[in-house]
Please model this.
Amino acid sequence: MMRLGVLISGRGSNLQALIEACAEPGFPAEIALVVSNRGEAPGLARATAAKLARTVIPLGDRREFAAAADAALRGAGVDLVCLAGFMRILDVDFVEAWRDRMVNIHPSLLPAFRGLHAQRQALAAGVRFAGCTVHFVRSEIDTGPIIAQGVVPVRPDDDEDTLSARILAVEHRLYPLAVRLIAEGRVRVVGNRTVVEGWQPADFACLGPSPDFLVTTPL
Ligand code: GRF
Model:
């Protein structure tokens, strides 16, 4: 079993998706620790409800936060750190220490629309498709080898809320999928890309009612 450490700052709906995936029989990962930098993060209640170990590290200083988080994650025997709506910029040394063992989910088809308000950026750019990306973390924000992406259409009447909700539904399926691939040992980092073992063209799959979204990774 791969042991996950999930870092949150807020709502925690992606944490919830991981909790539910880990509860499925045969899922190759378990959540060893939930870390929040905010004591009032609603996601903490989800950790409590699932009887998970949780800790709050509210430190404002980037290096102090990194040192405390690193100690907590190592103490819990974490193999893979999952950033799930974690809203702090991480210390460069922390990112290096967890290189290829830390992933993030971002609500755009990277490398487009890095940073805050990715869905708003997508609408402003007039793109016809949007989506989300799970990637290994590098020190430059929202960069790093892409593991999996999910795609949704942008509709003419979309606003930030409707587009965000459509993307979020895909996030909740994509994050567990990416974690499973990693936990199964199928993801290899090659330069700034990843190679997924056993990928077949037929693995491009339409999920959801109608071709509501595509997940461009093996299922
Ligand atoms: C998600 O849209 C995620 O892609 C982004 O922050 C949001 C977190 O939502 N990084 P939640 O806290 O998981 O509900």
